[in-house]
Write a structure and sequence with these properties.
Mean pLDDT: 82
Radius of gyration: 29 Å
Shape: flat
Low-confidence stretches: none
Order of helices and strands: HHHHH
Number of strands: 0
Oligomer: single chain
Distance between the termini: 63 Å
Helix content: 40-55%
Number of helices: 5
Largest sheet: none
Length: 145
């Protein structure tokens, strides 16, 4: 009987393809301490600059709305129903935050993507991301050979 010790020269790493012949093996799970798992980065979320700017503006407008609501409650005077009054003022001032702006920008991105794919001068264009068209307007240099 042939006994072969386990070593680096007879180890099949993850994603190994056997082209010819066959292999008999044992799968060992070592958890997150493997080479593949330790080199894997978590996926980054892709967000366009316009979306980041709108998110920042929305946060500022929410802070303004909350500050105005708190100011109105303090101006009215602290009493038993102050929390209820604060919530009423937050609802009243909620129109400061333009939610329709987000919807309009998403519709514009979809329309830009549609027109880019249907453009006769750049045949075969496929838009796979909605933030690509908005980033095209921010290009400073185009290098080609």
């Amino acid at each position: 009987e042939l006994v072969v010790p386990l070593g680096v020269e007879n180890t099949m790493w993850a994603n190994t393809v056997v082209c010819g012949g066959h292999a008999v093996g044992l799968v060992v799970y070592t958890g997150r301490e493997t080479r593949v798992a330790m080199n894997a980065d978590p996926p980054k979320s892709k967000v366009g600059l316009v979306d980041m700017e709108i998110n920042g503006i929305s946060k500022m407008l929410f802070a303004l709305s909350a500050t105005l609501s708190l100011g109105m409650v303090l101006f009215k005077g602290l009493a038993q129903g102050s929390l209820q009054s604060f919530m009423r003022f937050v609802i009243l001032f909620s129109s400061i935050i333009p939610i329709s702006l987000r919807v309009n920008i998403d519709m514009a991105k979809t329309t830009y993507s549609y027109f880019m794919m249907r453009d006769e001068e750049i045949k075969g264009t496929i838009v796979r991301s909605s933030f690509i068209p908005e980033e095209l307007g921010r290009i400073d240099y185009l290098l080609s050979d």
